[in-house]
Amino acid sequence: MSRHQAWLCAGFLALCAEPALAKCASVATAPALFGALNSTQVRTAVQTASTANAGLQCNGTVLSVLSNTDSFKLTVQPSTGGVLGPTGDVIPYTLYADATTNFPISRGVAFEYGRTGILDLLGLLNGTPKTVPLYLRTQIGSNVAAGLYQETLKLDWTWNYCEGLSLGGLCIGRDTGSGTQYLTVSLTVTNDCQIVTPNINFGSAPVVSAFATVSQSLSVSCTKGSAYSVGLSDGQNVLSGRRRMKSAANNYLAYDIYKGAGTVRWGASGSARRASADADVNPGIGTGTGSQVFNYNARVYTDQATPPAASYSDSVVLDVQF
Fold this sequence. Notes:
The chain has 322 residues and is mainly β. It has 2 domains: 16-190, Immunoglobulin-like (Sandwich); 193-321, Immunoglobulin-like (Sandwich). It is built from 3 helices and 22 strands. The strands form 6 sheets. A 5-stranded mixed sheet has the order 2-14-13-5-10. It has a 5-stranded antiparallel sheet with strand order 15-16-21-19-18, with no helix packed on it. Pfam families: SCPU. This is Spore coat protein U/FanG domain-containing protein.
């Protein structure tokens, strides 16, 4: 019977229904991806992800049909957990029914979409085929190793709602169903370091032999479980293996930076670098939160001629390799 014929029918039968607009169905999900984030971002800030398809699709119904007896429920399993990494670390996160934090979904507990107004806010009930989205937010404080973190959620959907009304406003048909889908959640953690490097200030002196040695340290806090090395570049004016400071008049003052309190030059390649296991304080792999300290000393070469009086400077880059 065509739609035109159905409306003719309504003129004769008070209980003839307007045709149901559509039904709901359990459909395959789309994964929720946090993407690649460094360990500091994961530990210190909330990260968000979402999926446009959490396993339920509805082709549309009439909003006024929904009542206290209509239900769209989602139960998420497992009841506890988070994305699991390669070393056993877990990053917990919270599920939400919309993009705000107004509707958190507790694991293992059926969440009712039908009586919250969310389906209407999502535009799920306007007659256009749409899937139900799901939103995720990590919890601050996860100090974890680098790697791929994943979890598979079991999503159990049940629905029971009136899909058609008579002209007298009575429900003449219900769409009742259920379905289970599985959702993959993933987050990739990359290595990161927080570095504190004080400037080297030799002060002033009338001749090169009068400059004092500067002894100080830099600190590095790298991703939990990471082995790394720290290198120092040759600066902007290196010559014959010596770092040099430069004046505005293009004169130079040669100096260098040495490992610890010794005379081994700290450089940027090979054995000239310093391994995390060689740290002077807390040697070993990164902890994610605690700092590892590298001592060094800097000296002006005394076998050079004293250059003209001026301010001399250089810029040295510290790099960390994993």
